[in-house]
Specification:
It is a single chain. 55% of the residues lie in helices and 2% in strands. It has 293 residues and is mainly alpha-helical. Strands 1-2 form a two-stranded antiparallel ribbon. The radius of gyration is 30 Å and the shape is elongated. 23% of the residues are buried.
Length: 293
């Protein structure tokens, strides 16, 4: 019975609570069974009448009333004195062990070279991400994001045409631009121009495949109302929308991992807790971006 460690105070509290509830149930149910056998239908009736049927004016049963009071006191004590604020638990011990291991891991790999970091990222991707994005990172025919284009101009163009859903930002999902501002960004050159402006001016990447379109893209960025959510500086209005200054960088990968996402085939969980260390998130970003042309 390793699953039931009686030295763990959380288990002790649970067993004590279960025993108290069982004892109270037996006591109260026994009392009411006795009343059903011995008591007679007598007492003051209410004024309401339903086809000749009335109900007695009864106070709340003492047993039930005392149970409510005891349970309220127990709940307050449990949350504010017993667990989880002031006692040992196996879950807490596990979390401390994971935290210590992660700190050791970070120290071990703090001077990791890019090649090893990328290889680490590939291993993490195959274990954690390939089930939805595919082992080639292409998104399994659109069931998940195509990471070969994600973080580059092609990813911005795809978002312009298809919108973006499920990231949980305060300003909501992004609709396709054609549904927001009809007639703007209708042609591929204008879409490339906006993508070029984001990558060259707003993103920390500061590089684009289409340098000749950057100036044009700045005006189209505002005309397409991109600034309404992302802001003039592209930083997402204080977290209300994606921060485009991080787009194409490891920091953007880390943000998506921490937020999670609702996709076409389910929910990508948040990795904000101790599931991945900062080094592992950085490794995953290096691997994803290593597949870019």
């Amino acid at each position: 019975m390793e699953w039931l460690n009686l030295s763990d105070s959380v288990n002790q509290l649970a067993l004590l609570g279960a025993a108290a509830i069982l004892a109270l149930t037996i006591f109260i149910v026994g009392g009411y069974i006795k009343k059903m056998k011995d008591s007679k239908a007598e007492g003051e009736l209410t004024q309401e009448d339903w086809d000749g049927i009335k109900e007695f004016k009864n106070d709340i049963p003492i047993g039930w009333g005392m149970t409510y009071v005891v349970m309220i006191i127990w709940a307050l004590w449990y949350w504010f004195v017993g667990y989880p604020l002031n006692t040992y638990s196996q879950i807490g011990e596990y979390n401390d062990e994971v935290k210590a291991y992660n700190a050791k891991f970070e120290a071990q790999w703090q001077n990791i070279d890019v090649a090893t970091l990328t290889k680490m990222g590939q291993n993490i991707f195959l274990v954690q991400c390939s089930q939805c994005h595919g082992i080639t990172t292409e998104g399994m025919n659109g069931t998940a994001a195509n990471l070969l284009t994600w973080g580059r101009e092609e990813g911005i163009i795809a978002t312009i045409n298809n919108g973006s859903k499920g990231s949980g930002y305060g300003l909501g999902d992004m609709l396709p631009i054609k549904d927001v501002v009809p007639g703007v960004l209708d042609n591929s050159e204008d879409q490339k121009a906006v993508a070029a402006y984001v990558m060259a001016e707003l993103s920390d990447v500061k590089k684009t495949k289409y340098p000749d379109l950057v100036a044009k893209g700045k005006g189209l960025y505002n005309a397409a109302t991109c600034n309404a959510c992302h802001g003039e500086d592209g930083k997402g209005m204080g977290g209300m929308a994606p921060d485009l200054s991080k787009y194409g960088t490891p920091a953007f990968v880390a943000e998506v991992l921490e937020r999670g996402k609702k996709g076409h085939i389910g929910i990508m969980p948040s990795f904000k807790t101790q599931m991945l260390t900062n080094t592992q998130k950085d490794a995953l970003a290096h691997y994803i971006y290593s597949n870019k042309n």
